[in-house]
Design goal:
mainly alpha; elongated
Length: 84
């Protein structure tokens, strides 16, 4: 929605004579979680897994169990994978 439409909606809502119970109902409806589509869930899971893997790699490197990749090595890896 545009800002103009949202402002009009808010003006309309303010103009209603709502009882406290009705206001609570409306607030709950506005705060209900939005259904996340499958693509968004897949992307969120990918990001979560990627960050978890990266954090584990950093922890291993701090313990001396793994070598951290340099920026140049990382860029080369991305080029090899045709991401850049």
């Amino acid at each position: 929605m545009t800002t103009y439409a949202l402002n009009n909606l808010w003006t309309y809502i303010e103009g209603l004579s709502l009882k406290q119970k009705d206001r609570k109902w409306l607030a709950n409806k506005l705060l209900e979680p939005v259904e996340v589509d499958a693509e968004t869930k897949r992307q969120q899971e990918f990001v979560k897994e990627s960050l978890t893997r990266a954090l584990d790699e950093v922890k291993r490197a701090k313990r001396g169990e793994a070598k951290m990749m340099t920026l140049e090595e990382f860029e080369e890896k991305l080029r090899d994978e045709s991401i850049l």
